[in-house]
Amino acid sequence: MSTVTTTTDGTGTADRSRAAVRHMLARIGRYVFLCLVLAFFALPLLWLATAPFDDTPTIGTSLPDFTLDNFRALLDNPYALTSLVNSVWLAGGTALLVVTFAALAAYALSRVRVPGRDALLYGLLLLSSIVTGTATMVPLFELAFRLHLIDSRLGVILILTGGLLPAAIFILKDFMDATPTSYEESARVFGASPLQIMRHIVVPVVRPGLATVGVWAVANVWGNFLVPFLLLRGPDKAPAAVIMYTLYTEGGQADLRLLSTFSLLYSLPVALMFVFVSSRYGFRFHGGIKR
Amino acid sequence: MSAITLRELTKVYPNGVRALDALDLEIADGEFFALLGPSGCGKTTLLRTIAGLEVASGGTVRIGERAVTNLPPGQRDVAMVFQDYALFPHMTVRDNIAYPLRIKKVGKAARQDKAAATADELGLSALLDRRPGQLSGGQQQRVALARAMACHPQVFLLDEPLSNLDARLRLEARTFLKRLQRELGVTTVFVTHDQAEALALADRIAVMEGGRIRQVGTPTEVFRRPANTFVAGFIGSTPMNLVPARVDGDALAVAGVRLPVPEEARGEVTDGEHLVYGVRPEYLDYSPDPVTDALTGQVVVVENLGSFSLVSLDVLPAEDGTATSVQVVVPEGREPEPGDTGWVAPRPGRSLVYRDGELVGSAAAPPVPAPRTGVGADA
Lengths: 291, 379
Known about the structure:
The complex is a heterodimer. Chain A is an all-alpha fold. Chain A contains 12 helices and no strands. Chain A starts with a helix and ends in an 11-residue tail after the last helix.
């Protein structure tokens, strides 16, 4: 009896250690795989970190032959820095309009009972992907032309705002819905006007939502190429996304030194904004207040 | 003077629900007044209409000497405490209490002093710099009260003031609230669905059903002499026993026994008439031995409620054959066992009779409009 037990125990231990080894190997394999995937996606970012400081950057990543000449060359380019300023104007203007109008619309849609409200919201959301999409570029161009908004920053801002608003309203309405109406009613009983209620109560309570939508709008405009490319004529008004394209074609082939340096400068503001807003407000894509 | 006078007040919601139905009510200056009723009876709508958050479809609201029916809430000189307290989560306790003064354009230093003084009265001084999220439920309620007090309104309106507190805190807050109201002497109207809360707090109670007031009276009046079977069933921690009865000569035939007609109904009933006999479990005396003028039956359930027990007896069926159960409160130590036969005798002057749901012999009480069914919504 005891012999049998011992034998069973022996094989049991062997089985267990074999299983442990298999488990360990599986873990190692999994992490190696994950590292490879990560490296695949991290390489372009690594290129962005090294190439701008490289004397002779290539399409591959290597230890840079350190230099800051690329930045000097970029400063000599007449449009590089102005284009970044242009981008700030376009992104800031659009974000301001989107946040303002989306907040007002979302508040109204959340508080007033409109028949067919949800259908309206979903319809808008569906259409929004078309408005700034390629499909409507011809009529939009025609519209801008008739309104004398060709080669005008305002035209670009208005069209981008129109494209972003539906989704912004959709996100913000959720935040507004999660704000109890008793807050507003309480302020009303104390005699606050609608504008005071908006300023004192609603805006501070939904601030994380406003920050999220603002950042999202800036990031969207920052990366938009097609609308400013078609609507703005000269390079003096063109944003960074469009100027990047001109760097690429000058001299018939990609100017990797300028391109890499400019890419770095181009991505820094948005990355910094994300970090700042995230640490300040925290990103949330849903409403709900911790009480 | 800050009495509240409502005349023919009607509120019909756009979806056709008649939440208030030509309602007349007078609330005296300085009174602590309860609006009581089951959910959907229109009590919250009534409170919100007094506040101005709902616009009346008809009728008038007067506060003191002023007609306020068409005034916006901010100009009515009322303060409201909401069920969830509605403290602004992004403001400190100090800023919350000072908010009404900020709207009234009081200078920052002055309103902060006022907020600190008000907070001090309610024992909130240590919490002035906290956010509402860092306070307990009871503290939040006090902050909401302080905020309402800070602007010295003519009227306080409280929506379910105790419902968001846990059971133990509720008792504490109840005493606190009653004391505060007495000290301030401000006309206060509160809404509740809890009859015990209304009885404990209010100077007078309006019991509502279906957008109408079924009875207005002091807690003693509505408890002892419910004007109709609805109020009788709603008021009291155990509902009143309502047993079918028939007038038989100079007595009432109730569940197989003859009981004397209650004094106040004598001369108002006719022989052979079918009525409902009502008596509270608290006003019945249980006896294991036969007694005269008592209902008798078999004990079926004994519920221990601490210092007393609630005993249910199946009494003899009524003439139409429906089985009837009667509940009686028995002091501790004298509980019967299920299966025992017992006698329950109503105390003199504590039993009532109802004809078609209305109290008989209530000539002194104001007439109560006939109930309307199928209406009412609690907004």
